[in-house]
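Consider one such protein record:
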Amino acid sequence: MNETLPPCPECSSAYTYEMGALLVCPECGHEWSAQAAEAAAEAGPRVIKDAVGNILADGDTVTVIKDLKIKGSSGVIKVGTKVRGIRLMDGVGDHDIDCKVDGVGPMQLKSSVVKKV
């Protein structure tokens, strides 16, 4: 076992070993490339910014900056609607905010259509 090898990303086992260009975990059998592990370590946490460039965090309050049609409904979220207590996530497509909008319910929004208050 080499002390410089990263732990397994699947099961966090410290007993990883090299097999050619891949790193292998003997406990769960997961295989991954060493270059991908290095790139993920260098990338760090993802930073999500609003429409004007402010960095967003979990629990922030944001304001909608343009009218949003609600898919599958005739309703609209109007400009200026405040959304409290957002949660950042990796959603479907560009949707990276999970929230509850008053009068509408739970939904996912794009960070490009909100502004931090």
